[in-house]
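Support reply, case 0932

Customer input (verbatim):
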Amino acid sequence: HFAEEGVTFDIDAILVQLKYELYEGMTTAEVGKALIMVVRSMIERDPAYSKLAARLLLNRMYSEVFGAEFDSKDPLAAHERVFVRNMTDLVAKGDLDERMAEFDLASMARAMKVENDHFFEYMGLEIMSSRYCMEDTKTKKQIETPQMLWMRIAMGLAIAEKKEDRERVALEFYDVLSNFHYTPGGRTLFQSGF
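Our regenerated output:
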């Protein structure tokens, strides 16, 4: 994708700096985090590194949320499968409002625009990931991607609508959120759907 946009990166400089961050016995996940931090440190040099760091972070998020289930050729199918499972489980455990299960979860997931994940710059994605995406309370692993978060928020915002209007309104909210036309404040990001 970056080659198409005419952006180049100093891979040698990234590798030189990464070498200083590595130590014996590091896990693959730790190497991935170190790489993100190295690229993040280069944003000051060239803002294009923000997009690269965001994509690296997004890959880490996908790995955590989907595990081995992720198929990069069909990311929407992975989103649908995991979103439906997570929403169903969260409602069953009482972590989300029971009305969230009244949505056609598979249909809502299929409406996600996974390609919109690439709108993020690094800091926006980092803040979303570390503060607002839900995580499994036991494993502390993330269970939401950016599009899953936007959809959960949209559904939570539409939850009080008439039942026949609920999904349409949620999809309208989702379109606004996912396309970065508006981002609600922290309380909405924290509490939507609960």
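We compared this against your earlier run and they match. Two observations from our side: The mean pLDDT is 90. The two ends are 37 Å apart (CA to CA). Please reopen the case if you see a mismatch on your end.
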